[in-house]
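Per your request, structure below.
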């Protein structure tokens, strides 16, 4: 698992507490690849963001989707206030604003 000062760890701990489940954390780390390596070595299981699995799975591991409870986290974007953004950064920022304004229309 991630250390206790990581937001993902806080989210997981809160969900477990609400379910009345007490996890036993054997290893903590900040490097996703190291955490996946520990799982691959048979030293436990972990909960990590799905996006960290885009490169595939290590040997002897498999992805198991969590259906319930639905666990989410919020991410944000920060931009410089006192200097102009580079053109490529500005294009990406505009894309994000447009994308999420469209996505918001479909949220319930």
């Amino acid at each position: 698992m991630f250390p206790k000062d990581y937001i993902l760890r806080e989210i997981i701990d809160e969900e477990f507490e609400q379910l009345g489940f007490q996890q036993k954390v054997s290893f903590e780390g900040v490097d996703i690849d190291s955490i996946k390596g520990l799982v691959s070595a048979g030293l436990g299981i972990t909960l990590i963001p799905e996006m960290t699995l885009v490169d595939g799975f290590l040997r002897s591991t498999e992805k198991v989707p969590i259906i319930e409870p639905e666990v989410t986290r919020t991410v944000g974007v920060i931009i410089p206030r006192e200097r102009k953004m580079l053109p490529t950064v500005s294009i990406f920022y505009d894309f994000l604003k447009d994308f999420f304004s469209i996505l918001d229309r479909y949220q319930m």
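The CA atoms of residues 60 and 70 lie 26 Å apart.

Regards,
D.
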